[in-house]
Amino acid sequence: MRKFRIRTYSLLSLVLLSLLPWVFFVATLFITTHSVQLGVERQDSYRIPMIAAFAGLLLAFFMIGLQMRRLLLGPLERMGQAARQIAAGDLDVQLPQTTVKEIDEVRDGFEVMVNGLQISYRKQADLEEERRFVIAAVAHDLRTPLFALRGYLDGLEQGIAKTPDQVAKYVAVCKEKSLQLDRLVEDLFTFTRMEYQEDELAMREASFHEIVQKSIDSLKLQSQQKQITVVTAFTPNDCVIQADAHLLERAMNNLLDNAVRYTPVHGRIMIETCSEGDRVAFTIHNSGQGFSQEEVNRVFEPLYRGEQSRNRATGGAGLGLTISKRIIQRHGGELTAGNHPSGGAVLSGWLPTDHKE
């Protein structure tokens, strides 16, 4: 459809206003006098042509008004109706086509706004659905350690554990379950914080190597219990980045905890870092079974656990990798999953050295 500017229609309207009365005048003069000779004195010879010219002027105004209604006012009224539909929550609106470029540009902007609102509403609905799913799943996960904790506490209260060894065992299990509960609650809190992104990050200079080393130290006991060898290959220079050190340490804790959890006894975990211009890259490679193709595509989804061997039996709420990815993305970086050519899972990521929110 060919489109014109409003000024083109304005010029055409002026031509019509100027031409149509003159055409009516000349035509009527010829009909009444059989001559178009002007300036000749004839009594009442111009009365009827003047009335015809006035009628032509009225007709010109009518035609211009009709076109203005069709080309300008009609589309604007329908856009106003569409705006009221959107305000009422109905985003399934049809906007009219028009040959006026200015109105068409407004229409295009309106459509962009409607499409943006539709995407925003879909994201909001997905987020709300995900939130309900996460809360339901975590509530389910909380029940298991709570029931176990209550059972062992009841056993202690009722005197089932009679020997010091039995009492020590019951207390150790209670401590383990309470720590599991603490991890679940902390996971839910961090996930919610990352999901809604309401809090500003406490950005400051931090050594990425120190953050990774703290995470390694915090999981030393778990790795020793499985006799896992942890090997580090840090870049020679100290990688200083702008980061929320507490959150980033939480992300690395989750990644390393995941590696320890799925590495077999006597296995190996390799942690590498390197500087790449204005960013720091890292990889965590474990000697476990690796990811299936489905897991590679979905491992960062909330509560996704994949294969049967990667399920609730290993502990956690299934939020660790999701939280780590969102923390790293919040810092301006990225995190991906894959498999090493020699076998085992690989988590690779990078962070900018100078990220500002």
UniProtKB/TrEMBL annotation:
Signal peptide: none
Domain of life of the source: Bacteria
Start and end residues of each Histidine kinase domain: 137-355
GO MF assignments: ATP binding; phosphoprotein phosphatase activity; phosphorelay sensor kinase activity
PROSITE patterns from the UniProt entry: HAMP, HIS_KIN
E.C. code: 2.7.13.3
Name of this chain's protein: histidine kinase
